[in-house]
């Protein structure tokens, strides 16, 4: 078991024939992901990586039965691509592109919600169900199959966390990189209940960072609804106020969104919060051996 | 990206957000000329820097004659203005804004930004004009009225009424206020602003609303579609090293410690700063070299970190994924040939092909390149090296 995606999930790629799209789609195919086609307007009818190319998402969905789209289009076209996917009946759009304007994502997410489509990202590594399905840009071999669910705002910290979990002798069910932009798709609060319901997941790791209050919302949710052990790390404990730390959303504004307040809220909700990023794996081992 | 008050007011004028008449001046003579053009008997000379608290720092002065305009412009231009937002080193003033004096009957606050939880903009108003809004929010939150504006319906009368009545405005002023707030909403949305702040928004003796101050910031990711706003960028207001890093695709922020950090990925870069602190050291910077970590970017990273004379050791923390660690290790060795690295460099490479990478670093046998076994070992060694204890 896993959440959201598995070995049977049919995936199309928007921005299929571009440099990034091509490279990562072929990596996903090698991993075993069922990439059933792609969309590049104007290249419909061609074949790419041994899969059909379509002009529109609607045609791609109709022909292939895909339910998930992995989006690699340039930032200026992300909102358009997301809304096209929603219109075409895609159930989940995984938006890898970095640098999409906030206003665009605001409209795109509203429309996606209206159409019943979930989104992950933008500016994220994607989602991976270990040894089954990789939809994104993460290095697949780091994610060994196991019993830990992972939700993270950061790419390389996701890899770091998974690596530590594997080194402790455990593995991952599904890992979701939710991205660090001011407006993102699925977040802790929506993903936590999926891991709670997944029989294979026995513990959950959540990696947060400064800015916004998603981790605080997660803490309130965990306290009331999550029975499985949760381990958390919040990056940016030493970040100065008012400075954007790489991710567009990683900023302490007006004194709120600090690591300290998030760590305190999570701790109060019974989460095992680690201060050092090197302790994530050990903490997982600790909560799983209880 | 942030802009100056005078630039924000230019945008306000374009959107019919009422502002007092004013002119920007780069020299004392220009300031005098601007005051003469504006006419009247009262002027305000305002330092233009990207920071709040200018008045308290002595950067905003009232002039009752042209001679006083000359006097204040002369004092303010070239001064180093220190406010609670500039840091102790302050900022040098390169331009002043000369504005007609206003008849202030009452001061308010009006601002707008993205409400991340609601995923739509929020407009906020307060009767506590002139005070820092964060302070008002912390001490007397009941004095702030907020309204979320769903961009699919845009600014409606009810949004404006909620704010106006919340401020306790008499009913004959509500219409004027709504017109003002609606114009401000358009200025914010059309330009992909990430924040706009009018503090104070004033009501004049004859019942008009005027933006006495103006602050705007914009979404960097949307600047490509606003060439007019991009042109307003004032490079003098930005940290030169951060700009240089950006030009090379690196994300760098200087901090006060002595352990330099070079990391791939923003989250891991923050986490690296945190672990340095956790191990008893102080990070000198945030630096994300991006996913690639090729020799050129790593070399540039070393160069940028070493511009800070406080740096006594560098912790390179790379998690190799699709970019394999052995390639990164070679990149680091290459980089030390491009840039002369004089301090100890502690290298932690983990992920794909980590063992091959360690082998490469060992075989290179360079005295000041020290391989770390894991994340905490690397942090510990870097902190020790910075203290001269390695």
Please characterize this protein's 3D structure.
The complex is a heterodimer of chains A (290) and B (390). Chain A has 290 residues and is an alpha/beta fold. Helices cover 34% and strands 23% of the residues of chain A. Chain A has helices spanning 19-31, 57-64, 78-87, 102-115, 155-167, 188-197, 214-225, 259-268, 280-288; strands at residues 10-14, 34-39, 47-48, 51-54, 68-71, 92-95, 118-120, 126-129, 133-136, 145-152, 172-177, 203-209, 230-235, 272-274. In chain A, the strands form 2 sheets. Chain A has a 7-stranded mixed beta sheet, with helices on both faces. In chain A, strands 9-8-11-10-12-13-14 form a 7-stranded mixed beta sheet, with helices on both faces. The longest helix of chain A has 14 residues, at 102-115. Chain A is globular, with a radius of gyration of 18 Å. The mean pLDDT of chain A is 96. With 390 residues, chain B is of the alpha+beta class. Chain B has helices at 5-14, 28-38, 66-76, 133-139, 157-166, 171-190, 227-230, 240-247, 266-278, 295-305, 325-338, 354-364, 375-386, and strands spanning 22-25, 43-47, 60-63, 80-81, 91-92, 96-100, 104-115, 120-126, 144-148, 193-204, 209-211, 215-218, 251-254, 259-263, 285-288, 313-320, 345-351, 369-371. In chain B, strands 7, 8, 9, 10, 11 and 12 form a 6-stranded antiparallel beta sheet that branches. Chain B is elongated. The interface between A and B is large, with 58 and 54 residues.
